[in-house]
Amino acid sequence: MRPIVVVHGGAGHIPSERAHGSMGGVCAAVKAGYSLLTAGGSSVDAVVEAVVNMEDNPHFNAGCGSVLTAGGQVEMDALVMDGRDLSSGAVSAVSNITNPVKLARLVMEKTSHVCLTAGGAAVFARQMGIQEVSTESLITEYSRARWKRNQEPGANPVECQMGKMGTVGAVAVDSEGNVACATSTGGILNKMEGRVGDTPCIGSGGYADNSVGAVSTTGHGEAILKVVLARHILFHMEQGRSVEEASDLGLSHMRSRVKGLGGVVTVDAKGEWSARFSSNQMAWAAACDQTLHWGLYKGEHFTEAIVQTL
Amino acid sequence: MPAVLVVHGGAWAIPEDLASASVSGVKAAACEGFSVLKKGGSALDAVEAAVRSLEDNDVFNAHGAVLNSEGEVELDAIIMDGKTLGSGAVSSVKNISNPVSLARAVMEKLQTDHMMLTSRGANLFAESIGMATICTEELVSEFERKEWEKHKNYATGIKEDFNAKAHDTVGAVAVDSTGNVACATSTGGIRNKMVGRVGDSPLICGGYADNYSGAVSCTGHGENILKVTLARTIISHMEQKPAAEASELALKYMGDRVHGAGGAIVVTPSGQWAATFTTERMAWAAVENDTLWYGLNPQE
Question: Which pLDDT tens digit goes with each residue over B83-130?
């Protein structure tokens, strides 16, 4: 099986001054995941590596660069799922750690639970020896400026946040044909304390099953939850649809049933992949057969050979 | 359109000394929910009323709640409206008596369109809408406190308890006379769970309602239900198969794929219903055309 990684850096409207950074970020993340895969790493290793890469990149709404809650805090959600045995780990509303996706992986591997939330997740992170970081270190000037703008009288935070959703995610197939997904987000701007979106919810923020494929989603979280978007797309694939058809069917169902926009990256167990979105833009990148693919606007699809540095 | 309401009081090996109380509890809740439908109430009103009745009953874990590893109570609940796919959920919320009503408030009373609030944020919201808090002691029965002392270790707890004791989610599904469906699920989770553990109940895996196919409420080992997104899987099968067969297929799949046992209640917009489980027992009751159906053991 040829190894594949596909990542997204969020669907929505990406301001032109941020576009370049987002594109560079998804390309770097997909390469990081792909080099692990070609070195014999598992699909879980690859999706976690790719997502960590974007969490550490301040251009994305995950990890450092997360949007702020109404109270000016950072609360992050993340999910990881292993298609071999459907085992999964998730954290919701976690603060003061750099890589929520790593904590989600620990929930999957070190506990008998699937999801830990808020204070309980923080206690678990300490038990696992994860270093606590200050809230300040996760906040960028850009995210603070947007938050401040939304505190001004007459601001319309809901409208403001609809356009800019920068959840990050990845799906991968490794050389043994195992699939995995991971998704991580800071949520939506000006959210209430404790708001949980689609990202940490299995079936909504992502899903991975070796017998079908893997999906990671981004977009309007409440809409994604209502239609359980990732699982919905995999149902279409089980019925014989291609990754691209199934992704488009899922997204158009979400648009017609609950008026929600978003995007997805999808792989199937046979090694087909796609990056589809109903929003204006989605930063995405893919790596397979030593080739890098990427795009931002509808119809865009650039390619370039990957030169691996030893 | 005949209105139908079905409830469950959790799928597990319900011990003999709780059996008759469980059955009378689900019967009472089913009648309570159905009386809402009969008066012309919506499916949403009916499932909320039925689940409140179960939450208020000490026999079930939703209110006679189980304790986590620190000896605290953390509750999860969801409610979903099949007309709009609107839903509200709370996870890891403390010290309120009816999490299902807080979940409904998340769906209806927020200025934002958030669907789920967790932990302290959920409690802050409860406070902001004037929902009364009660002390942990009032949520925990003496029986549970004693059991918790005996099984302080989750790993032993899950081995000995699951399919034996201490884990009963409650839920309800309904279809009203206009063909709208709704579901609600509420739970205290699993005994000795880690602080902050969220199971399937508050997620769309633990319940789902869509007027185009039907409504489901699930119970069983939450981690396994999550892995197969049980409620959504049943609904997908229902788009092609009768309700009972769809539930059986999905529960069998959960058994095969992740070795999980559980139960589900379902209704379709046309009024078909089913109560299915792969555990030893599940307390359930249904009301259709003023007739009450109920059971505890397989084939009842």
Answer: 999 999 999 998 899 999 999 999 998 877 899 999 999 999 999 999
Catalytic member of A38, A98, A117, A167: A167
- Residue among B171, B183, B175 at smallest CA distance from B289: B175
Show me where the domains of chain A are located.
4-308
Q: With a cut of 70, say whether residue A280 has pLDDT above it.
A: yes
Please check the confidence at residue B50 and state whether its pLDDT lies above 60: yes
Across chain A, what does the average pLDDT equal?
92
pTM over 0.95: no
Residue boundaries of the structural domains of chain B: 4-295
Contact check, Cβ <8 Å, A225/B222: no
Per-residue pLDDT, A309: 58
Size of interface A-B (CB pairs under 8 A): 148
How many C-beta atoms surround the C-beta of residue A13 within 10 A?
13
* Interface contact A228-B196, CB threshold 8 A: no
Task: Check pLDDT > 80 for residue B165.
Answer: no
CATH architecture of B4-295: 4-Layer Sandwich (3.60)
| Nearest chain B alpha carbon to A87 | B227
- DSSP letter (8 states) at residue B36: H
Percent of chain A with pLDDT over 70: 95
> Bridge partners of A28?
none
What's the pLDDT score for residue B161?
46
- Tell me which residue in B112, B196, B232 faces A116 most closely, judged by beta carbons: B196
Given B169, B233, B268, B276, the catalytic residue: B169
Q: Is residue A167 annotated as a catalytic residue, yes or no?
A: yes
Closest C-alpha to B6, from B169, B120, B175: B175
Distances, alpha carbon B135 to alpha carbons B186, B197, B280, in Å: 19, 20, 34
* Best to test chain A binding among B73, B109, B112 (most A CBs inside 10 Å): B112
Determine the topology of domain A4-308 in CATH. Answer: Glutamine Phosphoribosylpyrophosphate, subunit 1, domain 1 (3.60.20)
User: Does the distance separating the beta carbons of B122 and A191 come in below 8 Å?
Assistant: no
Better pLDDT: B296 or B299: B296
CB-CB under 8 Å, A225 with B115? yes
As a whole number of angstroms, the distance between CA A75 and CA B260 comes to 32
- Output phi, psi for A60, to 5 deg: -110, 155
The reply to whether residue A258 touches residue B85, judged by beta carbons under 8 angstroms, is yes
d(CA A242, CA A100): 32
Bigger pLDDT: B111 or B13? B13
In a mutational test of the B interface, the residue from A74, A115, A165, A227 whose CB has the highest number of chain B CBs within 10 Å is A115
